[in-house]
Amino acid sequence: MTIPNHLIEARISKLMRASYGRLLAILAVQSRDISAAEDALADAFERALKTWPLQGEPDNAEAWLITVARNRLNDGRKSAASKRNVSLDVETMESDGTMPASYNTMRTEVFNDERLKLMFACTHPAIDANLHAPLMLQTVLGIEAAEIANIFLVPPATLTQRLVRAKRKIRDAGIPFTVPEGDQLVERLDSVLTAIYATYAIGWDDAPTGHVIDDRGAEAVHLCDVLVELLPEQPEALGLAAFLAYSAGRDGARLSEKGEYIPLDLQDIAKWDRAWLAKGDALLARAQAKGRFGAYQIEAAIQSVHCDRRKSGVTDWSSIVSLYDGLIALSPSAGALVARAAAVGALHGPQAGLVALQALEPEIAARFQPAFACAAHFYAQLGRQDEARHAFLKAISLSTSVPIRHYLMDRMQKLR
Amino acid sequence: MRYTFLLYSKESDFADVAPEDMGEQLAVYGKYIQALKDAGVFIDTDWLQPTMTATTVTLRGGTKQVQDGPFAETKEQFGGYFVVDVPDLDAALAWAEKCPNVHYGLVEVRASAMPDGQK
Asked: C-alpha A140: how far from its chain's center?
């Protein structure tokens, strides 16, 4: 029987999107060599393209791919003599068109999902933290290095070279493909969450133009979905997933049709995606039911309060200030301090907001773009035009994002 | 104020990179240049052939001396530059951090010393 090539090709590329990470993880955990596993899997997909149109798609396509890839991995390791003893050889299947007996037993094989082990290997503390997210994107989601380079605005040859070295280190240094237990799990999970968060977050402040941001957000959501599917009981993983869902729900409202930046509290709620926000609510409720609070859950809760504006029509700034207090107590950061000051200003007025801004370390405040943007807003509200203009100019000069620059310039021009 | 970013990296890191991959490598600079232009801070840029193609000239000793090769052998080589016009060093550093070169080399930021009238 012959099946049209284009149907098989479409089927295989669909299989690749759906199963790549799961298949690669199985091979990588077994061989502890990610590069070899990638080569073997690529080879198996290539072979599928050649043989499936002639023989039909096997009943269990994933088992077929894994077997071919495993044989390929074994070929690489074993001598020609021992190779003859390998019980299952797909090559024989090709030549006479029949399936070996052992293939039938293999068909019922159920694969464990090994992607979690792969994620922990990719985010091991012995690997440069900057590579955690790119490694996970490439191995777990099967995204090409050039595309990852585009997401992170890193030159592709540089990234490719680093990914190759990192995989070599995982192999040669014997970095384990295991899921840590107990306290270790919480600690190591934090590296996975940090990498996923970085995939999402770098974009908002750093991307010089708006368009790359969307990809980043989508890939972060995808990675976090995989994580939550495999670790459904971890409150911080659920918290990050909730946070990403809220953000995804507001994607369509962040920029105007002309590409102008719109701050969260001025976004048009009609442009928010209700399904995503409901997903965020559900994930956050699941996280909070575990009774162990953490920074990602607080970040999600802050988003949740902002998004509740769609129901109540107003932003509950008092809750937002309390949540930032909690976040700062748990993990202080300049960004959180400025965001808290902005909320204090919205709640108690610009004078109180300016006082709250003083919680920033002076040497950080002197170069921190969000601090100047926030102060400019308060000075403008107080009618202190010169100070406002000065702060706007400094904030604009520190902005490398075009929509944010234009937004601030527009605000500055509205000063009297 | 005018600032020049001097871009240094190890040429040997790219010895094995195929020309078409090198094209992709340089393509990220296109985005960076566009961002600088969109922000209205871009003045000039260039990137250079490797140091092995350099020729060094001086009349310092009284006679013309032409040397095949760079002025000095260094661990990291000067490979290109950007000139930007921004209000102060903080703003210059904010842009230098975004230069693709920081991912594989380093960027030296220097303020212009040229009097305004001659720029």
From this structure: 11
Please tell me what DSSP assigns to residue A153.
Answer: T
Which chain A residues in 375-414 lie under 8 Å from chain B, judged by CB atoms? Answer: 393-394, 397-400, 402, 405
Q: Does A364 touch chain B (CB under 8 A)?
A: no
* Nearest CA distance, B21 vs chain A (angstrom): 7
CB neighbours of residue B9 within 10 Å:
20
pLDDT tens per residue, range A345-386: 999 999 999 999 999 999 999 999 999 999 999 999 999 999
**How far apart are the CA of A402 and the nearest CA of chain B, in angstroms?**
6
Gap between the Cα atoms of A142 and A127, Å rounded = 19
Q: What are the pLDDT digits (tens) for A264-290?
A: 888 999 999 999 999 999 999 999 999
Residue B15 structure tokens: 């010895």
Give yes or no for A155 touching B (CB within 8 A). yes
Chain A residue with minimal CA distance to B15? Answer: A157
Strand order in the sheet with B105-111: B42-47, B77-85, B2-9, B105-111
The phi, psi pair for B67, rounded to 5°, reads -120, 135
What's the CA gap between B28 and A3, in Å, rounded?
42
CA atoms within 13 A on the CB side of A166: 24
pLDDT tens per residue, range A124-134 = 999 999 999 99
Q: Which position has the token pair 């969450």? A: A193
- Cα nearest neighbour of A365 on chain B: B90
Interface subset of B 42-101, CB within 8 angstroms of A: 86-88, 90-91, 93-95, 98, 100
At CA A244, angle to CA A238 and CA A247, rounded to 5?
145
Smallest CA-to-CA distance from B31 within B107, B99, B104 is with B99
Closest-CA distance of chain B to residue A400, Å: 7
- Give the tokens for residue A208: 């010089």
Judge if ipTM > 0.85. no
